[in-house]
Structures are given as C-alpha cells and as structure tokens.
Amino acid sequence: MTSKTSGLIREGTVKLPEGEVRVYGPVPPEEINSFDIDETLDSFRRPSKQKEALKEIASLPGGQVFIALFKNVIIGYVTFHPPEPFERWSEGNIPSLLELGAIEVSRNYRGLGLARKLMEVAFMDGAMEDYIVIATEYYWHWDLERTGLPIWEYRKMLESVMTSVGMEPKETTDPEINSHPANVLMVRIGKNVGREDIEAFEALCRKEDEEFYLFDNP
Ligand SMILES: CC(C)(COP(=O)(O)OP(=O)(O)OC[C@H]1O[C@@H](n2cnc3c(N)ncnc32)[C@H](O)[C@@H]1OP(=O)(O)O)[C@@H](O)C(=O)NCCC(=O)NCCS
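^ thats the input. predicted complex w/ coenzyme A below
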C-alpha cells in the first residue's frame, strides 16, 4: 500500500488491555482530518490546533506524519519535514536532510511503549536509509512540569526513544543547542546517503555562527 503523499505505508501495533493501538504512516492530511484527537495531546498546542499542524506537515512536500490511533482517536504522533528556512539546517539545501519535528504521546497513554513504536514504524523497512534524520532537542520544549521528571531523566528518556532507531547525539557549534547542556542534536545518517550530502551536513554541524564572530570581535 502507498500513501499519496510520501511513499510506502509502514505499520505496527501496540496491545493495551483496552484494545489494540494501530501505529502507522505516512498518513495523508485528509485521513488525519477524519480522526479525532485525544484531549491530552496538548504539550505543544491545543489538541485542535495540533491536528491542524499535523495536517499541514502531512501536506508539505517531503513532510511525513506517523500516528498512534486508538478507536479512531489520535493518541500519539511523530512528524518529519525538511528543515525550516530560518534554521541553519536548511542552509546549503541538503536534499537528504529530514528533521524530526516533534514526537508526542497523550498523557493518558505514556510509558506504554507508544513513542518507541512510532519511531520503529517510521524507520521500518529501510525507509529512512535515504535520509540524514536530525532532531534538535531543546529542553524548553519538554513536558517537565507534567511528567515531574528532572531534566536529565527526561533527556535520558528522549535519548532512549531516539537511539532505539539508531539516532545518536552529535556535537555541533549551533549556539541554540549549546545554550544548555541538556539540549542535544540527535542524528542518524542513512546507509544510502551520498558522500556529498554527508560532507555538507558535517560542515553545517561545525559552522561557526557569524553573529557570534561579530559579537566576539567587535
Ligand atoms: C517523550 C514522549 C513522547 C515519550 O512517550 P512514551 O510513549 O511515554 O514513551 P515510551 O513508553 O515509548 O518509553 C520510551 C522510554 O522512556 C521511558 N519512559 C517513559 N516514560 C517515563 C517516565 N515517566 N519516567 C522514566 N522513564 C520513562 C521508558 O521506560 C522507555 O525506556 P526504554 O526505551 O529504556 O525502555 C512523551 O513523554 C511525550 O509526549 N512528552 C511530551 C512531548 C515531548 O517532550 N516530546 C519530545 C520533544 S519533541
């Protein structure tokens, strides 16, 4: 089966005592529209706005949305899209660069392996081998308050989710990443990515920020 937007559909399930959760994608925007969204899927924005954002990402060229669906209700998602134009990662237009934009699981369903399953499904069948997948993890986006997790425990949890598909922390000169020691750039370079893209990406990771130079050398 293929999605109209972004290639082969990948799929898995998570069994809960109440029933089976279907984890799959890439999901086209009209299909996202046909589902409800759980009222506790609100870490980044109100659930109704989050549903709109998921539809937007699914409509982007190169955008991919994977969802965890329980009884026609979206209870989790992970999104991927080309880097935003204002980010350093869009410089050089590296064609294989794909950003994991966000991963979220409803508060009512956390700790059940859904985040891990979302990642497993997204990276299934070598689908991400053509991409350099990055995730810029900034602690100010994390749900520290409602999980009650200390910052480094939260970082450990996220690292565990991401390393489960081979993403690894990578050093960078990016000032936003380096503005707090818990922030991290996670990266996975797919097996089919060409040398040119890898070199361009390595250069981006090491790039010195011009504003910082100006600041250092007035
Ligand atoms: C991060 C998040 C997606 C994890 O979702 P989840 O479905 O609960 O995660 P999983 O059940 O798949 O667990 C993943 C790992 O984290 C651990 N974990 C999950 N909840 C935990 C908790 N409250 N305390 C400690 N560890 C925890 C699990 O044991 C598992 O570890 P393992 O892989 O070593 O076994 C979820 O907490 C969330 O939506 N947070 C808000 C949004 C956010 O911060 N997103 C990340 C930035 S984009």
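Residues 139 and 180 are 8 Å apart (CA to CA).
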